[in-house]
Amino acid sequence: MRGSRTALSTQYRDVTFRSLAESESALRALDERASDMIYRFRFLPEPGFDYVSGAVFAITGWTAEDFYSDTALMFEMLHPEDRRSAATMMRSPTDENHRLRLRLRHRDGHWVWTEHYTVPVVDEHGVLVAAEVIARDISDQVRIEDELRESERTANAVLESIPGPTAVLDAAGVISMVNAAWDEYMLASGAAAGRYAVGTDYLAACDEAARAGVEGSAEVAAGVRAVLAGTHDGYQLAYPASGRNEDRWFAMDVSPMRTEAGGAVVLHSDITERKRYEEQLRHQALHDSLTGLPNRALLNDRLEGALGRARRDGNEVAVLLLDVDGFKVVNDAYGHAVGDELLVALAGRLRTLVRPGDTVARLGGDEFVVLCEALGDPAEVAVVAKRMVTGLAVPLHQGDGSELSITVSIGVAVGRGETRGHGLLHDADAAMYHAKENGRNRFELFDARLAGRAHARLTIEETLERAIVNGEFRVFYQPIIEIDSGVCVGMEALLRWEHPERGLLAPEEFLSMAEETGLIVPIGAWVLQESCRQRRRWQQSHPALGSLPISVNVATQQMQRPDFAHEVAQAIDAAGISPREIVLELTERSLMDATVVPTALELHGIGVRLAVDDFGIGYSSLTYLKTLPVDQVKIDQSFVNGLGRDAVDGAIVTAVITMTRALGIVAIAEGVETEQQRDELVVLGCGHAQGFLYAHPAPPEEIELLLERPVGDPASARSSAVLVRQVSPAPSSAAS
Ligand code: C2E
Ligand code: MG
Ligand code: MG
Predict the structure, then answer these.
(1) CB distance 552 to 583 below 8 Å
(2) Nearest Cα to 190, choosing from 221, 214, 167?
(3) Which of the 8 DSSP states describes residue 729?
(4) Cβ distance 436 to 323 under 8 Å?
(5) Going by DSSP bridges, is the β-strand pair 48-52/37-42 parallel, antiparallel, or unpaired?
(6) How far is the CA of 533 from the centre of ligand 3 (A)?
(7) Contacts with 697 (C-beta within 8 Å, 6 or more apart), sequence order
(8) For ligand 1, atom 20, which residue shows the shortest CA distance?
């Protein structure tokens, strides 16, 4: 179009130098074909149209007669605002083409946008005599321009009306538009100035941020690229951002522009409130509003999850269904408010009775469910159920000071991998009814086979309880030897159970159960008291033995008791011995529990010495030796066992000895059975040992016989004969 117009104007210019007749005929010829308007307006001798092409009539609606008869028409047709510029154009004395947009009034009154090119015509004296003009209808173009301008204005308005930081990217990822919020956001986020401004390459900025280690930038760049390439329909990312006072959540949303040119819109919005609300809704949907416990929906979900894991790991899952006995009576007698209070108190107490990973849920009414996962031995569940029956039977204190006693009936079902969740709940329910029938305030197991095993276990627990009462426990003693001299420098107290039917039992037969049931606490207390008393008896009857400190093993559960140090002090006082005469052997595991650290410090404070038992097998972190007041380290027998054979064991023992020596801690090798092991220990620089090579653990009367011979025979040094250094009544500083 543009090309044809230029050609036309050139031809037309030539025409001006020919005769008027000639030019008119040429114009007419063009006129037939041209859609452009062509006219010649003369100024001299009197103004008027010399020529007006057909297109002018077609476009303006005015006729030839109108034009030729009314000279003023040309100006009347013009929009008042355009008249001045039109006059200037027509009269311009220069020989240049003038291009001007003018609005012409159509004969029927509407305005037509036109664009005019003017060529001034001068006579031989250089006087301007006429103007030759080509004009065209540009209404469509103007309309499109208007629309574009309008849509840009709209786009801007839309962009500004979006509260979140928003940018428009072109197809190449260059930022073409942003709203004010975007600039503010980038400023606040500390992005390098201008990095995300209009005209910059958004993808390049993301890549740079990724290189600088800004988390998530690489993912964002990949997501935006995918959207721009059209391989993804959108990209979303929710990300937390730390605000000044609180952490907030933002969502980034990249969506493609559905235009021919392509591009994408990047929008960030603050979704903190929504997140919170969602969280709240989720919580409400899955929790009971009265007690805050998981509800049936969440329980079902967790149950299915637990069964899935059980299938995979070969574990078992137990469901305990609890129902309050006579809850209806409580409700009727005291009112619903009291009933609710009771349920809340019960929920709280239930939570304290389960392991951290177990789920306590409320099914509704007075029904609760406890879900226990990963039971090593399914029979354990009986222990849990019993603990609940007794733990919940404690009276609940009411607001008015009165007490309300309640009991529960529990039905227990254990599921293996193939069990369905609802089936398990159903079984537990059946068992619960059974418990109600059998007199309430008790539990029943659904599975008969399991019931047998669990009851057997409870029997052991009961016999263990009875053993305490009946005094079936004994303490054996095993000497601790100074290797170089072969002299006994201490004793370890080791627990034995004289079972009425099964005979003498070593700790491995009952210790884990004593720990699980918590009975280790009273048993351990007894061992400590008995060891203190033995120390006192020996002081009086066998001064040589009475000078030796006694090492007593302490279980983690004992250490976790807040008043344990006090109990130890009491046992020592009661026996009338000195705290320096007792060494407490702690496990590595209990020292790793931060809550026992104050107790360890307190014990050290009262003068009791501390040893780390079975060193090396548990949490081989040596660091705590530096921070805790440890006096002795007992190298576990598994390392001693490999001495002379296993290079790694040798290296570990060497490391332990080197370190303990640097810290002033006594190292004692446990389980020394052979002379070869002993010799190896001497080479490695370990000063103390304990083991069958020297003596087996034995009851006090046997130990007395064994150790009654005094030191004297130098030949026996470094032998495996156990000797006791003859001492005066002053307390020994053995193994210190
Ligand atoms: P431990 O404290 O490491 O005690 C050393 C264990 O090694 C004892 O086993 C002892 O009989 C055994 N032993 C000693 N010399 C040798 C040897 O040369 N070769 C072999 N193979 N074994 C040897 P015991 O008496 O069966 O005790 C086992 C564990 O039970 C003790 O290990 C200790 O952790 C725990 N234990 C014992 N008595 C008590 C107690 O009163 N309270 C607590 N909480 N735990 C105790
Ligand atoms: Mg020990
Ligand atoms: Mg040990």
Answers:
(1) yes
(2) 214
(3) S
(4) yes
(5) antiparallel
(6) 23
(7) 476, 477, 478, 492, 494
(8) 671
Give me the pLDDT at residue 46, please.
83
Distances (CA, A) of 212 to 63, 185, 206, 215, 237: 74, 19, 10, 9, 20
Indicate if ligand 1 lies below 6 Å from the C-beta of 671: yes
What token pair was written down for 315?
């574990």
Q: Are strands 128-137 and 98-105 parallel, antiparallel or unpaired?
A: unpaired
Instruction: Tell me 196's DSSP state.
Output: T
Average pLDDT over residues 233-255: 81
Which atom of ligand 1 is the closest one to the Cα of 506?
26
Whether the CB of 588 sits within 6 Å of ligand 1: no
Ligand 3 ion: nearby residues, β-carbon < 5 Å: 613-614, 670
* Helices 20-33 & 2-15 angle (0-180, nearest 10): 160
243 C-alpha to ligand 2 centroid (Å): 53
Q: Round to the nearest angstrom and report the end-to-end CA distance of the chain.
A: 109
User: 615-632 pLDDT, tens per residue?
Assistant: 876 555 666 777 788 999
What is the spatial distance between Cα 343 and Cα 334, in angstroms, rounded to a whole number?
13
Phi, psi of 610 (to 5 degrees): -120, 140
Determine which helix (DSSP H) or strand (DSSP E) holds 236, and give its type and residue range: strand 235-242
* pLDDT band of 450, cuts 50, 70, 90: low
Ligand 1 in contact with 505 (CB < 6 A)?
no
Please report, rounded to a whole number, the percentage of residues in the chain having pLDDT higher than 70. 86
Quick check: 663 pLDDT over 70? yes
User: What amino acid is encoded at 533 in this protein?
Assistant: R
**Site to substitute for ligand 1 among 494, 558, 670, most atoms within 8 A of C-beta:** 494
Arithmetic mean of pLDDT over the chain: 84
515: CB partners within 8 A, 6+ apart: 555, 556, 557
518 CA from centroid of ligand 3 (Å): 21
Q: Which atom of ligand 1 is nearest to the CA of 558?
A: 44
Under 8 Å between Cβ of 461 and 467: no
pLDDT in tens, 402-427: 777 788 999 999 887 666 777 888 88
Ligand 1 touching residue 511 (CB < 6 A): yes
Question: What is the three-state SS of 18-30?
Answer: CCHHHHHHHHHHH
451 exposure class (CB count in 10 Å sphere: 0-12, 13-18, 19+) = middle
